[in-house]
Predict the structure.
Amino acid sequence: MNSDDRRLDVLRAIVEDYVATREPVGSRALTERHHLGVSPATIRNDMAALEDAGYIVQPHTSAGRVPTDMGYRQFVDRLSEVKPLSLAERRAISLLLEDAVDLDDVVDRAVRLLAQLTQQVAVVQYPSLRRSALRHVELVPVGARHLLVVIITTTGRVEQRTLEAGAELDAEVVGRLRVLLNVAAVGRRLADLETALRSLPDEFTGAGAALARAVVEEVESTLDLDREERVVVAGTANLARTAGADFTRTIGPVLEALEEQVVLLRLLGEMAEDHAAVAVRIGRETQHEGLVEASIVTSPYGGEGAGVARLGAVGPLRMDYPGTMAAVRAVARYLTRILAG
């Protein structure tokens, strides 16, 4: 083993011990707890080299070392693989999520489950309309002049609107409109719907054309891409419960940042550009003053590649990165499978 690999092993041991004990880690503790295969003097030299490189720092005189943002980043980047969850954990995820009755219930269960698994703050973004496609549109007459428009997206969103027609509804026209609407729109991304539906009213005359225009306008306005996106948060009490003295002083700014939906949406959007199964932002990488002492781990769900939304966990720099990454990835995979069904 060359000196660089050995120093990375020392860094890994420091991160693991600091996460476990919340105390600065000294060379004696490393010698006693880890089989690094070198002398205490070599470990001290390696720690000095890691400190010079900016991976660890000594918070107090005569104290051990703690990882820096750079140290955590090196640790995360060097993880060869994300460890799988236990069979019991996977079964618990499956049982809880598969009983959900609709999208709101799925998201609510997922965020609470993720907070419990990670003992961090969990965040789940509602599926983005920008990445959704239309699954089905149903038209249901409710009286002589009122039509219920039910819109279902591929991400499980169900929107219902009732519109008033200018004339009595003709069952044959409504049936034909339903067929043509689904033929033109189903499977298309919502961003492409306006073009797909533009000529639909031309297939009808008189009151039928007016009804078709009204339905098309209702679908387009309901699925307006500029509608505010939402993020659901759970487990904020975990910050106080699991924080050490190094983090307690900074809980306030973190909580304030978590309350700002725009901050979370920006972070999740930026992390979507990573195109990674699990993305991690550490400390100042979040580019938000309130989160400089926190890290966020996220994963996409609801589709192939970048997915249609992200979920994740927010906690102190001193978090269990392997365990958190595993839980986030697992819940995202189950969520994707459920929404696809």
Q: What stands out?
A: DSSP finds 14 helices and ten strands in the chain. The chain has a mean pLDDT of 86.
